[in-house]
Amino acid sequence: MRITTALPITAMPKTTAPNWPVCVKSSGRSVPRRPLPLLEPKVHWVVSRHRQPEDAQVNKVKPMKTFANLAELAACVGQDVAVSEWVTITQQQVNQFAEATGDHQWIHVDVERAKQGPFGAPIAHGFLTLSLLPQFFDKTILVSAKSMGVNYGLNKVRFMAPVPVGSRLRAHLHLHSATPIDVNGLQLQWNVTVEREGSDKPVCAAESLVRIYA
Fold first, then answer.
1. Cα–Cα distance measured from residue 178 to residue 72, given in angstroms and rounded to the nearest whole number
2. pLDDT in tens, 54-72
3. pLDDT tens digit string along 129-140?
4. SS3 string of the chain?
5. How does pLDDT run across 65-118, given as a tens digit for each residue?
6. 122 lies in a domain?
7. Is residue 36 a part of any domain in this protein?
8. What is the DSSP string of 31-55?
9. What single-letter DSSP state applies at residue 100?
10. What is the CATH number of the domain that holds 112?
């Protein structure tokens, strides 16, 4: 996105009229020449077109990657296929996840105590971060000819850094493999790296196995 800003160029300073010589008419009468009027300062404007700073573009919605069929998606093996939109982690989400799973540890749900704890704020459950994978996929990748998809499991998961409440997360999706199954299906291994905005260290890395059918 571009924005247009008008920037002033330094105006010319006021100047006084010079001492013009006396004009002598043919009649012989000396008449002082009329002084020129004072020059008024003028402001000139130029248009500056420039990009917004990078941090102003974090809300930009990335287009969904669309594939006509399973074969078209399978052709992307070995590639970084997509990057998801940002998702904000709220305290309400954390509390609801605690209710659903029974994990009410104070580092997640006791806001005041957590502020005095090792992370300086309440943090999301690691499995809450992992549970966002279906959302990352659904909002980023579309296979038009797909009839359904199921989670088949996980090969490996690591939670490398905490996720404080209020963090914004997004997933980088790399298609590691695509193996034909049954008559009309594929088993996909996605290597997913979950990034937290403002941090150089990923918060989660997972090898996700998904089965999709035409």
1. 11
2. 333 344 445 689 999 999 9
3. 999 999 999 999
4. CEEEEEEEECCCCCCCCCCCCCEECCCCCEECCCCCCCCCCCCEEEEEEEECCHHHHCCCCCCCEEECCHHHHHCCCCCEEEECCCEECCHHHHHHHHHHHCCCCHHHHCHHHHHCCCCCCCECCHHHHHHCHHHHHHCCEEECCCCEEEEEEEEEEECCCCCECCCEEEEEEEEEEEEEECCCEEEEEEEEEEEECCCCCCCEEEEEEEEEEC
5. 999 999 999 999 999 999 999 999 999 999 999 999 999 999 999 999 999 999
6. yes
7. no
8. EPPPPPPPPPP--EEEEEEEEPPGG
9. H
10. 3.10.129.10
Q: How far is CA 183 from CA 68, 75, 134, 148, 208, in A?
A: 18, 18, 24, 14, 22
Coil/strand/helix, residue 110: coil
- Is 107 inside any structural domain? yes
Which residue from 211, 213, 195 is spatially nearest to 203, judged by alpha carbons?
A: 195
Q: What pLDDT sits at residue 183?
A: 84
The pTM score is: 0.70
Q: What's the domain count of the chain?
A: 1
Which residue range forms the structural domain that includes residue 143?
A: 58-213
Which pLDDT belongs to residue 62? 57
User: CA-CA-CA-CA torsion for 121, 154, 184, 69, nearest 10 degrees?
Assistant: 40
Token reading at 115: 């502020």
Residue 144 in domain:
yes
